[in-house]
Amino acid sequence: MSSTPSRVFVARLVGLPIFDPQGDQVGKVRDLVVSLWSGATQPRVLGLVAEVFGRRRIFVPMTRITHFDSGQVYTTGLLNMRRFEQRPTEALVMGELLDRTVGIRGTEVRGTIYDVAMEQARNRDWVISRVAVVEPGRGFRRRGQTHVVEWTEIEDHSTRHADQAATQLLAKINEMRPADAANLIHDLPKNRRTAVVAALDDERLADVLEELPEEDQVEILGDLDSERAADVLEEMSPDDAADLIADLPPETAAELLELMEPEDAEDVKRLLSYADQTAGAMMAIEPVILSPDATIADALARVRNPDLTTSLAALVYVCRAPLEPPTGRLLGVAHIQRLLREPPSTLVAGALDADLDPLRPEMGIDEVAAHLARYNLVAAPVVDPDGRLLGAVTVDDLLDHMLPENWREANRPGGEHG
């Protein structure tokens, strides 16, 4: 491991790509597994939790790691693809050690762990050698004094405290994509997940909830007070909020709809009015809608919105007023790929795909899938009998409804490791 630094700080590893000897990426680092056997002066690092294709998490022993270099991790390429399952004698650094309240021996200093460092011992095992601890801030100081000390200088480094905070873990979660953050939150112990959920702002929690299995969504929402649960639902996309509310007990769903802002609640109620597994039930009601006098420059500016999914940004919908669903008559759709080839000052209406048949809200999921496949589309408009745009079905929403209900769970970590 000639190119590996002598000391590696663990929090900096999370999210790094993992490569095989041929230079192909095989996964991402999600956490480190350490042994907390009480007889050891320094916990031994057993391996990495890696996320591979299909959001599957596997265990990569340290013996399979060749080196860490320039923000990348390299392996021998020989990986066991069985899903990871944590054992009772093991701890996850990100999930359980960060934010642990500890003391420093021989001092009155107490603080929280915000990072740990690992090094190779003489026997070539990797061990946790250093701990970075931050004291609570005092007065107007945002952050207290920091200390980097030997693991053996730390007191009270057991892994299970009911009152463990989530400050450092939260900082890492806020840097992740929602799907990656959802994976991490899904695997946290109950008390850690509760602390993280309480600390996330409503918008970020909404993003993460949309990526979690239905069972997790219902459990997390049920742990929130009703006012906050309604606020989080307002931050979710209406179609995802409708799917979640449909999984709640009827009296809970009615209470939350009553607490939501009337406009947001009305959008959700409209989606709930359609039969399950139909175009109306799965459509997004916030596509990019433009008037006939909009220019291509206007369209391109709208699809640059980072909050739009890739599939929603692939088409713009030109309609008569009003421009909020249900709109005036749909005149046609314009493909962004086509618009990129046209002068920005020209009208979008001149580049419409007016021959594309729209979907009807009552169309079943198989009909919708066939429609998207027939026309090679990633999204398609949904209109009422009068030709007014109601929303758009995207391929990602279609897949969410076509895959088994537990598809997220089936591709998450569980299983064994050697």
Tell me briefly what this model is.
A hairpin with a 2-residue loop joins β6 and β7. α3 packs across α5, α7 crosses α9 and α8 packs across α10. The protein contains 16 helices and 18 strands.
Tally the beta strands: 18
Mean pLDDT rating: 86
Structural class category: alpha+beta
Low-confidence stretches: 411-416
Instruction: Give the N-terminus to C-terminus distance in angstroms.
Output: 23 Å
Count of domains: 2
Helix content: 25-40%
Report Rg.
25 Å
Shape: elongated
Total helical elements: 16
For the sheet with most strands, the description reads: 7 strands, mixed
Task: Kindly estimate the percentage of residues that lie in beta strands according to DSSP.
Answer: 15-25%
Assembly type:
single chain
Structure overview:
- This protein has 418 residues and is of the alpha+beta class.
- It folds into 2 domains: 1-200, no CATH class; 289-402, CBS-domain, CATH 3.10.580.10.
- The longest helix has 11 residues, at 262-272.
- Helix 3 packs across helix 5, helix 8 (238-246) packs across helix 10 and helix 14 packs across helix 15.
- It contains 16 helices and 18 strands.
